[in-house]
Amino acid sequence: MKLPSNNDLIKGIRNHDSPLLRHVYETYYPIIEGYIIHNQGSREQARDIFQDAMIIVYNRIKSDELELSCKFGTYLYAICKNIWMQERKKYLQRAEKLRQQPLVVNDPGAADDPLLQNHLTNLFNKHFEELSKDCQKILSMYFNNFSVEDIRIAMNYKDLHHTADRKYRCKKSLIKRIVNDPLFKRLKNELR
Questions:
Q1: Tens-place pLDDT, residues 36-70
Q2: 49 closest CA partner among 31, 23, 74, 70
Q3: How many Å is the maximal CA-CA distance in the chain?
Q4: Which residues contact 191 (CB under 8 A, 6 or more apart)?
Q5: What CA–CA distance (Å, rounded) separates 118 from 104?
Q6: Residue 154: which of 140, 171, 168, 170 has the closest Cα?
Q7: What is the Cα–Cα distance from 131 to 178, expressed in whole angstroms?
Q8: Alpha carbons 6 and 37: distance in angstroms, whole number
Q9: How many CB atoms lie within 10 A of CB 48?
């Protein structure tokens, strides 16, 4: 079978030609998926990015803004890569912003006692700052309701299992440090 030219691909996308669109997905999606996964993404993210890129291509074709000076596959790959880089940059900026935010402990029993709340917050922050920088980033994201997938991407971890395990270990380490602090034991007695 003869491979479609750039013009054939553009015409097929413009006209919603099902066999040609299937060819585009079967030919180019595996390449994009490989790139995204190799760069700390998931299959789901690869599908979303590929779909976003195809929408961009379609819109440019419909508005007659698409003039290719390279192969179609190269052009599509470049769009997907740019989208992925923007997504990663957003995740990393969001994670860094959260890492820099002060953390506050909200204990219902301490809500009526500002001094006790202050001690709990200081205790928490003291032990939080003693964690590794990675644990601080992970827990900052976790406390701000980032999903495990978001944390995985921000931390450049390869899989969700490893990310969930790191989050669990960091949280466990923080709790252990706080619980073993003599000040915590005194504060706990005051809350009773």
A1: 888 877 888 889 899 999 999 999 998 888 888 89
A2: 31
A3: 80
A4: 107, 109, 110, 116
A5: 9
A6: 140
A7: 12
A8: 27
A9: 16
pTM: 0.54
Residue entry with tokens 């030609």: 17
Amino acid at 18: S
| Closest-CA residue to 38 (of 126, 123, 158, 125) | 158
Say if residues 163 and 151 touch (Cβ distance below 8 Å). yes
Instruction: Write down how long the chain is.
Output: 192
What does the block give as tokens for 128? 């939080």
CA-CA distance, 66 to 12, in Å (whole number)? 14
Q: What is the pLDDT of residues 108-142, one digit of tens each?
A: 554 456 676 777 788 888 888 899 998 988 888 88
**Which tokens belong to 114?**
């500002």
DSSP type of residue 143: H
